[in-house]
Design brief:
acyltransferase activity, transferring groups other than amino-acyl groups; 22% strand; Acyl_CoA_acyltransferase; binds coenzyme A; alpha+beta; three-stranded antiparallel beta sheet
Length: 246
């Protein structure tokens, strides 16, 4: 079978999954699809204050059932992307690469010396939903218009969400992983041309990651009444943008 449509993703020799390897010095880290077996590790990460303090979406406390539901949901998207690529390979493997609506890989894994793989984080790329906008009607209008655009439309506004195991913070891993996914997949294969991200105003590490990736600070949105699932009150969100050179 031709693997042209997978390019530049590789095929995992043990699992048959698609994957990318980070460049040196992080070449012991690969990005693969999610696995249901990640659930217990995700539960332990999501109940660690080094993560839940900074995250708005996940329930708190985070239970095994939350991880199973989340993995089932995100696997539906990554499995569909893989099926789309398999079908394209069967139909016209040597044709120009097809546009794919999402990335088929997103889970960071550290490959240990004994060959075992430790799940260490996740990167989401979704169409933007303007979580800082408190005017519900304006938010819904923007979301609807963004969701209605055809796959590959350069005017789609995307958003990134990410987290890394606390044991691995501060080594440049997330910056390298997002850069790899953008350069090798999102830009060439999904037509991503603009990304808007939100970081809590005190999340200096997350903002720094995006700045290192070339995102530009636009504004701070004060959010006086926003309380996270963990009970923490946040003060606001910093909005940053990345736009492809036209
Ligand atoms: C945000 C997160 C993904 C970053 O991953 P990471 O691999 O540690 O990031 P990197 O090592 O690539 O870069 C972090 C940068 O922030 C800097 N940084 C981190 N905390 C900082 C702080 N309190 N003050 C100043 N700089 C800080 C680091 O020095 C580094 O910058 P440098 O390379 O210029 O020195 C990770 O810390 C995490 O999972 N945090 C909890 C979840 C989260 O915040 N997710 C993002 C939600 S928007």
């Amino acid at each position: 079978m031709s693997t042209t449509q997978f390019d530049p993703l590789q095929i995992h020799p043990k699992t048959g999954e698609l994957f990318l390897r980070l460049p040196s010095p992080h070449d012991n880290i690969i990005i693969t699809p999610p696995r249901m077996s990640d659930a217990p590790t995700i539960v332990s990460y999501m109940n660690d204050p080094a993560l839940y303090y900074w995250l708005e979406g996940p329930p708190f406390p985070y239970l095994p059932q939350h991880a199973e539901e989340w993995l089932t949901k995100i696997k539906t998207d990554t499995d569909a992307a893989r099926e789309r690529l398999d079908r394209a390979n069967e139909e016209h493997g040597d044709a120009p690469p097809v546009v794919v609506p999402c990335w088929p890989i997103r889970s960071l894994r550290e490959v240990r010396e004994d060959g075992s793989e430790l799940f260490i984080g996740d990167i989401t790329l979704v169409r933007e939903r303007w979580p800082d906008l408190e005017d519900k009607e304006a938010k819904a209008t923007l979301e609807r218009a963004n969701a209605a655009k055809e796959d590959g439309d350069p005017s789609i506004v995307w958003c990134i969400g990410d987290y890394l195991a606390p044991s691995h913070h501060g080594k440049g891993i997330m910056t390298a992983a997002i850069r790899t996914l953008l350069d090798k997949w999102a830009i060439p294969r999904m037509g991503v041309r603009q990304i808007r991200v939100e970081t809590f105003t005190d999340n200096i590490g997350s903002r720094r990651v995006f700045e290192k990736l070339g995102f530009v600070f636009e504004k701070t949105v004060p959010l006086e009444r926003r309380v996270l699932n963990s009970g923490r009150r946040i003060e606001g969100m910093d909005i940053l943008w990345w736009k492809a050179d036209s």
